[in-house]
Amino acid sequence: MEITLLGSSGSIGLQTLDVCRKHRIWIKALAVKSDVRTLEFQAREFNPRYVCVYDTSYYGHIKTRLADTSIEILCGKEGLCEIASLGSGMVVNAIVGMEGLEPTLEAIERGNKIALANKETLAAGGELVMKRAKEKRVEIIPVDSEHSAIFQCLQGHNKNEPSFISKIILTASGGAFYGYDKERLKTVTKEQALHNPNWKMGEKVTVDSATLMNKGLELIEAVRLFGVKPEQIEVMIHRQSIVHSAVEFIDGSVIAQMGVPDMRVPIQYALTYPKRAVGMAERLSLTQTGNLTFEKPDEETFICLPAARKAVSEGNNACAVLNAANEAAVKAFLENKIEFFRIGELVSLALENVKANKKVTLKTIFEDSAAAVEYVNKSL
After folding, report:
1. What is the tens place of the pLDDT at every residue in 169-209?
2. What count of other Cβ atoms lies within 10 Å of the Cβ of residue 262?
3. What does the buried/exposed string (b/e) look like for 329-360 if buried means 16 or more CB atoms within 10 Å of the residue's CB?
4. pTM assigned to the model
């Protein structure tokens, strides 16, 4: 087996390489945005045929670093799409942000199986992506722990006939500010927002977890991946992060996937599916874990979650507007330009004021996304 790994220097990318080391999975291509130092180390260890740095200003740096190798070096969006369309067995998309959408579509056109960890692919372009994947008969295997859990719970059922699903139970850690009210959120700091109680993730995803936008985006993804309606998805705060999600079936049975919080488990399942292999994660002990708790999220305080539900219910490009507005607002927060609580406010305002295109194409997705970013930046 061979894979192309997009976003190899991020948290998911690094853990994907852990799995590849253990199971001796060959890497055909690696891509990073700008971390050429990490890319060089990875390239020398795994000896891929191609590497890509999609921030073009770093092309010269990686070319110099790998000058003594026979590795072909690509750059920019074109290079990213080129390695995504290689004839590898699987493309693992672990890019953060809208830059992950076009490579996903390129991989689908080539007929490559996709292990998807890039939320924006389905959050912004899910309608387009799933339609094309169905036409090309390309399988998209989720890597997110929650969607992997749902995917595993549905094994043995015809995923093209979701009428046997009563509801999906999407679990959330609650993020750094679980239990906070609106007033308390006004005083939180960036350092506090970047501390997740259970998961080690990149900055953007960690902030999304704190606002519950991460769960909103996952709700949108679940609608796209599993063919259910938004009202069939129930979000629950589960602080222990042991139950990664569950499915309630029409006969009343509930099947859940459980395990210690370790992203190498869903990553490995995606790479070895439909088989299972010996894993690296610590084994779950229910007696040591103790009580498992579940609560409804506070959607009056954490307004990103209801905004996401509204966007996916509206359809069209509303989800693209929501996603882009969130990216812009989180970027502003990380740059200390706005307070934490304003992320949700700006996202909700963008969803109300940016008119989403009714025709969903790659062009309109990027146009509406750009309009949302512009709206947020003007509102700072």
Report:
1. 999 999 899 999 999 999 999 999 998 766 667 889 899 99
2. 19
3. bbbbbeeeebbbbbbbbbbbbbbeebebbeeb
4. 0.93
